[in-house]
Write a structure and sequence with these properties.
The chain is mainly beta and about 120 residues long. The protein has strands at about 5, 10, 20-25, 35-40, 45-50, 55-60, 65-70, 75-80, 90-100, 110, 115-120. The chain is globular, with a radius of gyration of 13 Å.
Length: about 120
């Protein structure tokens, strides 16, 4: 059974950091492009970042200078670290895979269940 498991979310104060992890089960993440999307309450799901098969990374402008994306082939994970978190970063973060990177929801055919990130003082 193929699954993606997103974890690492939580309640943090503005300015703090979080590292989200997407773990693959029954799938080798290094063979796919892995993206992060987020969805705030009442809003559409939006693209955040993508880690491609060749290791290239693509990041949304609003988080680019505050984020680090990394892959760990031994653990079969893709991680997204966001520093200096802001209230507007609040939402459910999902990881998803496709053969190549893209920025739209429909491009990705496999999704994890999401992890909640809440940034609030």
């Amino acid at each position: 059974d193929v699954q993606l498991q997103a974890s690492g979310g939580g309640l943090v104060q503005p300015g703090e950091s979080l590292t989200l992890s997407c773990a693959g089960s029954g799938i080798t993440l290094s063979h796919y492009a892995t993206a992060w999307f987020r969805q705030a309450p009442g809003k559409e799901r939006e693209w955040v970042s993508c880690h491609s098969i060749d290791g290239s990374t693509y990041v949304q402008d609003s988080v680019r200078v505050r984020s680090i994306i990394s892959g760990d082939t031994a653990k079969n994970t893709i991680s997204l670290q966001i520093r200096d978190l802001r209230p507007e970063d609040t939402g459910v973060y999902y990881c998803a895979t496709a053969m190549t990177c893209g920025t739209v929801v429909a491009w990705f055919d496999r999704w994890g269940q999401g992890t909640q990130v809440t940034v609030s003082s």
